[in-house]
Amino acid sequence: MSNMGTSSLCEAVSRRDFVKACVTAAAMIGLPFEMVNQVMAAATANNNPPVIWLHFQECTGCSESLLRSSHPVISNLILDMISLDYHETLMAGSGAQAEQSLHDSITANKGKYILVVEGAIPTAENGIYCKVGGKTALASLHQAAEGAVAILCIGTCASYGGIQSVSPNPTGAVGVRDIVKDKPIINIPGCPPSPYNFLSTVLYYLTFKRLPELDELGRPKFAYGRKIHEHCERRPHFDAGRFAQAYGDDSHAQGYCLYKLGCKGPATYANCSVQRFNDVGVWPVSIGHPCIGCTEPEILFKKTIEEKVQIHEPTPFDSYAPVSLKEKGKGPDALTTGLVGLAAGAVLGAGVMVARKLPGAAATKEKSKHAK
Ligand code: FSX
Ligand code: SF4
Ligand code: F3S
Questions:
Q1: What does pTM read for this prediction?
Q2: Over the stretch 191-220, which tens digit does the pLDDT of each residue have?
């Protein structure tokens, strides 16, 4: 379906953009610059691992943000590096034809394919709350997991159950790790997750032929090893005790810390404050909304937006960059705060900066090449 190979990869993504995306991914993984060539070689090796991608209880936002985005570099790279044999949202086939395709892919690639799961799995009443082709999600997962070399859970739903698993959880929704116990599982949480976290994980696997180091929640440490609070552009306000008190008031307009509005940044492990989203360098906190902890199974939808999280490290880092304060208004304005964050983001986010300049139409055009 998507074995386009090196030449077509270069057609889909300019050499310059390809190199920048690989440099960004390599930096995210924490590799030295000298290893970028190795990452690029792996990305163009034309050794695409077969991938079966299943959808269960979810909103499809994970696929949407990854593939139908204005960052064609990421979507093209991902689709060209893997051989996407089955994906219910992207494939043109349906009904019995799609079922046959899934069966054939599992049989032909037994023991070789990567299973990507998007969405939670309902377990109540033998899983009757989510069926595809007359088969429960539970049965489909068991069947597809059996021949997989590894399972990649994209999104918080597949990783931990997500919004479906919130009490009273009528369908008994859980994440993959609660059902499959005998396969390596990598969780890429976020609702939806950063496309770069998915891209970097795939690149890591292709480059080193092994899985990245994971934390106790099964997340790649390179992407989820730090709290977003550590690199937040509003952190100087937090350290100085300047907090937004209400949405839209002066303290909010000044760009003050959102902790008192319920920001979960001090307890949320993710790289949003560095990697950022949407090709325009924004993330929830930069546009004035508290982080809701969407990568954390015990926070997302389980704590209300205004609920405050415990702070374990209130002391500021000695190395934290100073921000000069304006006398009037007793603090930097929102633009200054944003620029500080953008400067930090630019270090690791060069690829995002490049990607946002690319025409969005290319992604949609390219996608049709990959669908059956
Ligand atoms: Fe869940 Fe993904 Fe949230 Fe939606 O498919 S992680 S509800 S953004 O999209 O699974
Ligand atoms: Fe940023 Fe939230 Fe931490 Fe405040 S509490 S510094 S807004 S992450
Ligand atoms: Fe999610 Fe918080 Fe990042 S809500 S997108 S982890 S800023």
A1: 0.81
A2: 999 988 998 999 899 899 899 999 999 999
The reply to whether ligand 1 has any atom less than 6 angstroms from the CB of 58 is yes
Ligand 2 centroid distance, CA of 257 (Å): 5
Q: Across all residues in the chain, what is the average pLDDT? A: 83
| Residue in the block written with tokens 């669908």 | 371
Q: Is 295 in the pocket of ligand 3 (CB under 6 A)?
A: yes
State the ligand closest to the CA atom of 252.
Answer: 2
Residue 284 in contact with ligand 3 by CB distance below 6 A: yes
CA of residue 292 to ligand 3 center, whole Å: 6
From the CB of residue 117, how many other CB atoms can be counted at a distance below 10 Å? 33
Distance 84 CA to ligand 3 centre (A): 28
With a 6 Å cutoff on the Cβ, whether 191 touches ligand 1 is: yes
21-56 pLDDT, tens digit each: 888 888 888 888 888 999 898 888 877 889 999 999
At 236-278, the pLDDT tens digits run 999 999 999 999 999 999 999 999 999 999 999 999 999 888 7
| Cβ 300 under 6 angstroms from ligand 1 | no
Q: Give the class (CATH, top level) of 6-222.
A: alpha beta
Annotate 324-344 with b (16+ C-beta within 10 A) or e (fewer).
Answer: eeeeeeebbebebbbebbbeb
Helix H segments across 59-132? 61-67, 72-81, 95-108
226-335 fold: Cytochrome-c3 Hydrogenase; Chain A, domain 2 (4.10.480)
Domain spans, the chain:
6-222, 226-335
Q: Read off the pLDDT of residues 299-324 as tens digits, 9 standing for 90 and up.
A: 999 999 999 998 876 665 666 666 66
